[in-house]
Amino acid sequence: LGTKKMLSPFCAFLSSSPSSSLGDTTTTKNENYYRKRFQLGRSENCPPLFVAPMEGLGDKRFRKAISTVGGNFYDDICKEFTRVPGNLPNGAKAEKFIKKLSLHDYDAFELGSEGVKVSAQLMGSNAELLELAAKELASEGEAPRVDLNCGCPANVVTGKGAGSSLLLDPNLVYECMRSVKNGCEGYPAVPSLKMRVGFDDASLFRENVQAACEGGAEILTVHGRTRKQGYRGEADWEKIAEAKSICEKFGVMVVGNGDVTSCERAARILRETNCDGVMIGRGAVQDPLLFRRIKSRVRRDASGTVTLFSEEEVSEEHKMEDEAERVIVFLRAFYNEMIENDVRESEKSSRGKIRLRTSKKGIKKTTDSRRVGKLKSIVKYLFAGNPYLAEKMNEIVGVADHETESTEMLRKVEGLVMQYWKGEPGHVAVDNFSSRTGYVNELTTV
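^ thats the sequence. predicted structure below, dont judge the formating
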């Protein structure tokens, strides 16, 4: 498939009114859903909260687990991205290939008919294939929202012209966003885009924000770091405020993302940026009860004033006297979903077994040692913000995956949580426990 010729994003839609956005009076069911939540967020309620898509961390296991303790307290949850290739495999038919790719492992109702529908995210740079994928997700997949990824910093992604590398060319941001918008056309799915403030720097930030708006994004999520930063340093919330000022004339809602790890920081990002909603990723792994805390303590009125209530002022129905037990429920749900996932993988395998790699030290992994590794990845976040649990961190992460059973690891983690969990954790910068914090320029031509 070739690349479609496009108008410059800076002239194509300047004459358009914001009526194509969430500000339109003619709405679909999903548009009504998001609009209502954004409106409620400015009328003595908590602004909408979004669970960030996180590859490798925010997968189905995490989504299932967080829904057990916070399912009624977030407004949107998104599956990790689906990679749309730059070119089709030899002999592949576009519609058939993209249909299988897009709908593989995507279930808008994976959290149950009573739960929040799971949104979808696409990553790629081939506009025609992105449009086909968005259409499949919007129609067959019944996705409430289809998001374009312009934020992933991984070299394996940016080296192929996708993720945050789109930010090097605002015209490409426009073209890809317009394709996702076109794919959603005629279906309830709301088109959106998630971006960083730039690739190596923020020199094209305003152009990229405008391109996203003109391309048809109805919700724009901004992570306040460049791709080069990775997860180092503090997120630049001033850029989120700048995006809000640009998006207002298009009627596009802005969701702030980056370093929201507590109720206090949620209130701060709302005050400092005037963003319409807040997206939380690793902060929710650090504190699985964070969405509940924010929903019960943060309010914004019609004038834009943000209020953070104290724990003592929280209504009785939202007070949590059994926090440790709730965190344990989260851990058990995560573990149980790991078991179910292993069963599904085994059933799909032609041999009835899961293929496992051998470690660099020559130790062959087992299904159970892989579970131990996943538990440890959660513990790195869960223990980091609690000084008592942080002291016990090495008792868990210092144990080799093959030297203990996953059930024993779970039992030990639960015991430590029950003994040492002491309310809302403190803020810990994500680069303190991220294995890869920064990214150098390793773009390749593909």
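The mean pLDDT is 88.
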